Amino acid sequence: MTSIVSVQGLTKVFPGGLQALKGIDLEIEEGEVLSLLGPNGAGKTTLISIICGLTTASGGRVTVGGHDIARDFRAARELIGLVPQELHVESYEKVINTVRFTRGLFGKKPDDALIERILRDLTLWDKRDEKILALSGGMKRRVMIAKALAHEPRVLFLDEPTAGVDVELRQSMWQVMRKLKERGVTIILTTHYIEEAEAMADRVGVINHGELLLVEKTGQLMTRMGRKTLTVELAAPVSDLPETLARRGVTLGEDGSSLVYTYDTAAKQTGITDLLADIREAGLHLADLRTTQSSLEDIFVGLVTGSTQ
Predict the structure, then answer these.
(1) Three-class SS of residue 43?
(2) In this structure, how many other beta carbons lie within 10 angstroms of the beta carbon of residue 277?
(3) 227-293 has which fold?
(4) What residues contact residue 36 under an 8 Å CB cut-off, 6+ apart?
(5) Which residues of the chain does CATH 3.30.70 include?
(6) Where is the ABC transporter domain (predicted)?
(7) Which end of the chain is more exposed for a tag (fewer CB within 10 A), N or C?
(8) Burial of 11 from C-beta contacts in 10 A (0-12 / 13-18 / 19+)
(9) What's the topology of domain 3-222?
(10) 37, 9, 4: which is closest to 21 by C-alpha?
(11) Which one, of 162, 153, 125, lies nearest residue 64 by Cα?
């Protein structure tokens, strides 16, 4: 696929010497959903701010739709919609008017049909004549998304878009993101909700201490770095773990009634067959078996702490 956002050797050093970005290279494909994960202070918002023209880079180059963000700022910015973390809305303005006004700021001709479609998609049409001051926090965030979409951007940055909204609203906003993707909008999403990235993203990028640790397709990442845990429920509890099982990395459950074994899903041999044979030879009887798959959150924590193998 074609890259619509290209980031090459991007660095940012703030006054005082803080190096927020350390040579970021990133190609974002047109029409994909890319989720950027990282702890607070990792550099996610700084990266987005530079691409959107809100912060000046110390070094490197960024293009959006082939337009250099420094030399051809206006053309690049017209392609971008941004929903920042902070709620910035005109409290005493009506919903529909603030969305229309934002479209006008980009020099776009009035298009009431488009505005209606955006508001309906975001479940804001019934609120169109209400002042933003009267809306809930979740609805205000939807207004910000509507404003970001008013000029029909090809690239949409969502910086923590579901922060502070309830589960129902979050799921509804996921539906909005899916509709945008179907229309060909490229979405870059930062989130603290790991399940959001797992559910929405085509690819996941992990940033920590200003460095891009990886960018990989979500499914491939789960397969490559995911691990499974096999829990063997015993018919009767035991007080000590047989040495043959301990050598395999098996641990004993807290109450002694289960055995826990973690293995690599990508390995050619999981060792489960030999493990079950050792359990029988140790004179232990099985009552049940169950497996659990590591989540994207487990992988993320491992990457940023350096514990993922």
Answers:
(1) coil
(2) 11
(3) Alpha-Beta Plaits (3.30.70)
(4) 44, 47, 48, 188, 189, 190, 205, 206, 207
(5) 227-293
(6) 5-234
(7) C
(8) middle
(9) Rossmann fold (3.40.50)
(10) 9
(11) 153
Token pair listed for 44: 């996610």
CA dist., res. 275 & res. 284, Å (int): 12
The pair phi, psi for residue 32, each rounded to 5°, is -95, 165
DSSP string, 131-159: BGGGS-HHHHHHHHHHHHHTT--SEEEEE
Q: What are phi and psi of 136, to 5 degrees?
A: -75, 170
Residues 246-292: tens digit of each pLDDT: 888 889 987 889 998 887 766 666 778 888 888 888 989 888 888 77
Sort 2 into a burial class: Cβ within 10 Å, 0-12 / 13-18 / 19+: exposed
Cα separation, 281 vs 278, in Å, equals: 5
Give dist(CA 257, CA 226) in Å, integer: 26
Residue 234 corresponds to which amino acid? L
Place of tokens 């990989």: 216
CATH 3.40.50.300 placement within the chain: 3-222
Q: How does pLDDT run across 158-170, given as a tens digit for each residue? A: 987 776 666 666 7
Q: Which two tokens stand for residue 45?
A: 């918002």
